[in-house]
């Protein structure tokens, strides 16, 4: 182990873990994809974000478009892609007597090639908006853009050529990259077309997020987050079965804990591995549950034994956060994620996630014959008792969270997943939740996933299917080629970042329907 | 010879000539130059374009500037450079959780890093404005910009980082390139400091324009133009003595005439040699005079013999343009260059350039014992007689041009250089020109060069020195590190392109004072 200092933080680097992770790195799979048409986008309030993409010409005619100053064209690749764009740019007219100045704008959704990025005014960096402005000095040019993009639509704006020449575009293609091997996926036979489609879009979403690590979103942030990893791993076990990629990611997280042994919420992979300075209560615990899920599928005891101390340490640290009542201390800062929701109190769902984790960690401790097993078991009993005593409100029939006794969907869903109540009580709780619909709802597919899994856990299979089709099917009906980071059917413009331009429209935590459908045989 | 078709034009490609030119290509000389300070630009009407650059910090403090969204800094390299920019970009703060979006703006003059390029509205392509906007995904980054720039000032605008980090810049440098070997230049000993300075700036201008060919301007158009080549070659013979580069350029022009044998006004060198579709009466003739000048310096008879047919052909084609009076036909189009002047009639100066060329071509014909020598001599007599008969106005005491009998500076200057009148008459004509100052004046250093050489030809050495110091010294007093494409002391904002932002501030045709000073021992 050596110590790395990142801006006053101490990171303990376990090089053998990093080396093991790097040994598991394999070359990405590539595929050449060509565009399928020329489209125009039009304002239409019946479409998501108010923009509709309409095919206006066959792609074969692209090469006949001679574009000069101020001209533009939008090309449709027909599906969501993650990869590298190439094309040949050919001059038309006199020999080019000035450089070409050209802008490329990449859109996962029509809105991104319709509304100018200059109007973006959200709080996260505008540098995520996918565009390139460049000069080409010599034409013809075989242009190979060096950055990776996540897109379906490409808008080309010719900013200037010269009065003596224009340009046309030929041999345009994208070399896609992924670490997901499609041949490993068993085709789903399902009588319901929408369920088949949801499964397909889930798998495409997962595929495009599977790179050298499980990324959260290939457009943004292109990073390994623990919360996303946990769900991607579950979907992966049912589809691509790239278990080594899960193993690699676990070793990466285990390789760079902080001085207390805390696992970071996410890792940067370049220029070399760096643990982010964000630490989240729930995400750190998910290191342990992700290890549990991995072991249950892969039966890889060596990895379990090696990573067990790190997993156990996350539980220890979570237990340290308990107050004298055995309830996790609340906090006004971003200490636990749960969902993108400004008003959501995180206490009760975090308490539930601790319980959820403890139950799995106890199983791992038993497997490893760890002598702290009975300590964990005793602790679980105390915590579950405290949870019911302090967070369950008999009066309102809901778990409540924080000083203001907030009733939220998240609290109920996670308490059901943690199996704090008995089966029938959990079932009643979920049905009451649906019926009474408290104001603090769910914003992300991430949170909605947990709701559907909670329904399945209590045996409400029909409701689960119905909600899956309503929510993920809703995205498909709204034009999703891959599932989105954010979707609120009641507020389709919702963005926690201040603009739907910056949202990610292929996001790992939204890929779980394939897991739910296949695992629970929906 | 093979035939190349460029947009309905036929180009006769003489591959052995192209091959010979390519054999003369040598690697460019490189030098690493670091910036000398951090500057701010301020509005000040006492300075050219109304902008003054003021040093505000030592360059050593650059690395301490942490720049976030909206921040900028201007770096001064202390002298005009042509080359490739490199730097190290380092993140400051948390690990970068979003790409860096950054803009680099390059300025030969303070105005270019002070007024936004978005306000440019001139008629030639805005793509010449030197800026790059790019995303950097991984930091720290060793950035090596692939394009060549021509600049002294570099403005860095950080468009966005993220709220969690900023960036700083280290190890910034420019790797300059030139085919001019400074060690070949004999230092000028001169008692007049301004004359020494004019000589130095001339040489620097020439140096920065000498690349794989003699370029007209390293910022714009970066191209081999015959009119510029002729003057660069003259300055080169007195300084860097890279005669092979002149030879190379002559072979290039000779390698791609059109189907009539006409030499193009300029050549594109990339992706492979292409003759531009611009043909100019004066520039084509200058192929012959440039060959003459080269032979007189290099004494290279083999090249003279090989290129003689092409040179002779330019004269033949010019003679074909004579009307029955032996006067070149006027034309409202851009058929002859002479100067950047919208109202200038080109007839009389073009007639003079034909005579000027004929006198040199006759000398070459004699050397080669060409049996067309006497034909040329007879033709010269006829043309000179016609010129005096039809273009000289006894009434006004000036040569006149075009249907409206325009009196211009250019007509008189070129008639003097062509030695159409006797020595004393030429001298009187020039003095009368200065005294009466007709409205159609001179706009470019190119035209002003010819004026000074005309003064020297008639023995007005003091006037020549005085004008040299007034005109080129005026540019130095106005802040020139290299001489400018355009300078009108009476209208310093003049641009034939509609904006001083697009003017070239290191331009080959302005480098001639070193030739005039050294050749005429001023």
Automatic annotation (TrEMBL), chains A, B:
Give the signal sequence positions.
none
Q: Per the database record, which ranges form the Glycosyl hydrolase family 78 alpha-rhamnosidase N-terminal domain?
A: 35-175
One GO term under biological process is: carbohydrate metabolic process
Question: Whose protein is this, by species?
Answer: Litchfieldia salsa
Note the InterPro entries from the entry: 6-hairpin_glycosidase_sf (IPR008928), 6hp_glycosidase-like_sf (IPR012341), Bac_rhamnosid6H (IPR035396), Glyco_hydro_78_N (IPR049164)
Q: What is this protein called?
A: Alpha-L-rhamnosidase
- Which residue numbers delimit the Alpha-L-rhamnosidase six-hairpin glycosidase domain? 191-516
What highest taxon heads this organism's lineage?
Bacteria
* Coiled-coil annotated spans: none
């Amino acid at each position: 182990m050596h110590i790395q200092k990142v801006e006053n933080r101490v990171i303990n680097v376990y090089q053998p873990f990093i080396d093991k992770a790097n040994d598991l790195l394999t070359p990405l799979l590539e595929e050449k994809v060509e565009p399928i048409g020329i489209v125009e986008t039009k304002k239409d309030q019946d479409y998501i974000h108010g923009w509709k993409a309409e095919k206006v010409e066959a792609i074969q005619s692209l090469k006949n478009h001679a574009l000069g100053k101020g001209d533009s064209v939008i090309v449709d690749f027909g599906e969501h892609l993650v990869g590298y764009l190439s094309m040949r740019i050919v001059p038309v007219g006199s020999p080019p007597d000035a450089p070409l100045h050209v802008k490329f704008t990449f859109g996962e959704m029509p809105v991104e090639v319709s509304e100018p990025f200059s109007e973006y005014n959200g709080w996260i960096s505008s540098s995520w908006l996918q565009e390139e402005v460049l000069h080409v000095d010599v034409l013809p040019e075989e242009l190979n853009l060096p950055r990776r993009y996540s897109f379906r639509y490409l808008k080309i704006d010719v900013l200037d050529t010269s009065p003596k020449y224009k340009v046309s575009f030929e041999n345009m293609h994208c070399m896609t990259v992924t670490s997901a091997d499609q041949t490993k996926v068993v085709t789903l036979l399902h009588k319901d077309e929408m369920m088949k489609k949801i499964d397909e879009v889930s798998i495409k979403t997962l595929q495009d997020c599977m790179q050298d690590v499980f990324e959260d979103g290939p457009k943004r942030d292109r990073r390994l987050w623990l919360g996303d990893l946990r769900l991607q791993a579950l979907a992966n076990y049912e589809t691509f079965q790239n278990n080594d990629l899960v193993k690699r990611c676990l070793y990466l997280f285990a390789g760079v804990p902080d001085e207390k042994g805390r696992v970071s919420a996410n890792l940067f992979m370049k220029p070399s591995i760096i643990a982010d300075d964000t630490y989240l209560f729930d995400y750190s615990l998910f290191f342990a549950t992700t290890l549990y899920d991995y072991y249950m599928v892969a039966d890889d005891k060596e990895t379990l034994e090696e990573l067990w101390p790190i997993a156990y340490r996350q539980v220890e640290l979570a237990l340290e956060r308990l107050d004298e009542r055995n309830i996790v201390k609340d906090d006004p800062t971003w200490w636990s994620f749960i969902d993108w929701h400004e008003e959501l109190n995180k206490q009760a769902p975090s308490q539930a996630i601790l319980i959820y984790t403890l139950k799995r960690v106890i199983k791992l401790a038993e497997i490893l014959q760890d002598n702290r097993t009975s300590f964990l078991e005793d602790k679980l009993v105390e915590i579950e008792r405290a949870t019911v005593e302090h967070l369950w409100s008999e009066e309102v029939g809901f778990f409540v969270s924080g000083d203001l006794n907030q009733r939220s969907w998240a609290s109920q869903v996670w308490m059901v997943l943690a199996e704090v109540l008995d089966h029938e009580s959990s079932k009643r709780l979920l049905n009451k939740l649906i019926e009474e619909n408290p104001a603090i709802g769910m914003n992300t597919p991430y949170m909605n996933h947990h709701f559907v899994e909670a329904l399945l856990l209590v045996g409400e299979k029909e409701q689960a299917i119905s909600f899956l089709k309503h929510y993920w099917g809703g995205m498909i009906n709204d034009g999703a080629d891959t599932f989105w980071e954010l979707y609120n059917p009641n507020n389709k413009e919702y963005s926690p970042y201040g603009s739907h331009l910056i949202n990610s429209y292929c996001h790992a935590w939204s890929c779980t329907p394939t897991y739910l459908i296949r695992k629970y045989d929906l």
